[in-house]
Amino acid sequence: FEDARDYVRRGLAEIEGTIEISSGQGFLSLDDLVTDDGDIYSKGELICDYGDIVELNEHFGGIYTQNLITVAGPNKGGKTKFCLNLVYNAVTRFGQNVTIWPIEGGVQSAASELRAIHFDRTVNRSIDSMEDAKTGVTRDVIQHDKWNTPNFRHPDWKEMEYAFAKDLATNPKYGRIDFIDRNLHIDTFLDEIDTSVKSNGSSLILIDYLALLKYDYRRMANHEAIKMAYQQVLNYAKKNNVTVISPAQYTQDTIEKLGRGNTSDLEMRNSVGGSAEILRASDIAFTLWSSTQDLANNRMTLLSIPTRNQRPFESFEILVDLGTCTFMSHRH
Fold first, then answer.
1. pLDDT score at 133
2. Cα separation of 176 and 98, whole Å?
3. Which residue has the higher pLDDT, 12 or 75?
4. Per-residue confidence band for 53, with pLDDT thresholds at 50, 70 and 90
5. What whole-number distance in Å separates Cα of residue 115 and Cα of residue 187?
6. Of 184, 2, 167, 203, which Cα lies nearest the Cα of 92?
7. Is pLDDT at 18 greater than 50 in this prediction?
8. Of 218, 233, 307, which is closest to residue 269 (Cα–Cα)?
9. Cβ distance 299 to 285 under 8 Å?
10. What is the pTM of this model?
């Protein structure tokens, strides 16, 4: 009787699994997983790296699909710029197609930031003398058309920048960038992402920020909505063989302790606000820390956050220029 009952239960579970697309493969033996032609589950693929940050490239071996990556830090501490720098690197150096959902700053801001990065990398990284550098072409200048203002009098650079922007958008050697310009709602956001990923062939998704999603407050609390969203995004990354990157905000307690240099009792796994699921769901997570004075001195410290897919790394300092979205190791 018990054998028959278990057989029926297993059969019903298998039927439910065919109806619920997010419920996995059902019941599997080890023999099902170990086959001559490899696993039935696809493996993550190397799609790009962390650019000029040597320590992250050495530690992680690059950026792989099927990972949810969280970049944490304080408010206005360079998280979005850091993530857009990763996107630019993936598109121009590795030819990867990317989907960007810029919830916080909007599409124009994100596009202008990428244009500013491309101008700097194309014009200034190939020169031999700093006297020939064309500096100051930032997101703000491009987005708000400040080519001929008291603080920036280079109207002749506008046409040059536009040509480089067209190159970024149309160069066949580069990957394609697809923006989502809609509110991110818990009930529909995965469909929006999937539409962009499928039509653009994206291997990398940047959601800035996932924790800013909208939801029906009558049905769930904020932390419940964030928890659900992170679980769904993690599952989507695994099943669709893509990488998802999203910034996350420090709690005020974390900011205060880091600002005082008091890290003796600071648990980085509790450093992000909104929901504990943000770090629990993340395959890879690290934090960007800098005071206002640090940024003025063009420096930033990267701190490790333990997750299931990474061993902790020693904190290290990098060189930064937020105007051009430059993040670079001292060893580069």
1. 77
2. 6
3. 75
4. very high
5. 32
6. 167
7. no
8. 307
9. no
10. 0.85
What is the rounded average pLDDT of the residues 173-187?
A: 96
Please list, residue by residue across 62-91, b when 16 or more beta carbons sit within 10 angstroms of its beta carbon and e when fewer do: ebbbbbbbbbbbbeebbbbbbbbbbbbbbb
Say if residue 21's pLDDT is above 50.
no
What radius of gyration do the chain's Cα atoms show?
22
Residue 6 has pLDDT above 70, yes or no: no
> Structure tokens of 261?
């240099």
> Residues for the chain: how many in total?
332
pLDDT band, residue 267 (cuts 50/70/90): low
- 148-149 and 46-48 beta bridge pairing: unpaired
For 138, residues 6+ apart whose C-beta sits below 8 A from its C-beta are 116, 323, 324
**Pair of tokens at residue 225:** 């909505």
H/E/C letters for each residue in the chain? CHHHHHHHHHHHHHHHHHHCCCCCCCCCCHHHHCCCCCCCCCCCCEEECCCCCHHHHHHHCCEECCCEEEEEECCCCCHHHHHHHHHHHHHHHHCCCEEEEECCCCHHHHHHHHHHHHHHHHHCCCCCCHHHCCCCCCHHHHHCCCCEECCEECCCHHHHHHHHHHHHHHCCCCCCEEECCCCCECCCHHHHHHHHHHHHCCCEEEEECHHHCECCCCCCCHHHHHHHHHHHHHHHHHHHCCEEEEEEEECHHHHHHHHHCCCCCCCHHHCECCCCHHHHHCCEEEEEECCHHHHHCCEEEEEECCECCECCCCCEEEEEECCCCEEEECCC
Which tens digits make up the pLDDT trace of 158-169?
999 999 999 999
Would you state the structure tokens that stand for residue 273, as one six-digit string? 């606000």
Burial zone of 137 (CB within 10 Å; 0-12 exposed, 13-18 middle, 19+ buried): buried
- What does the pLDDT look like over 132-149, one tens digit per residue? 778 889 999 999 999 999
Residue with tokens 């939801």: 215
The residue with tokens 């703000």 is 140
CA distance 110 to 227: 26
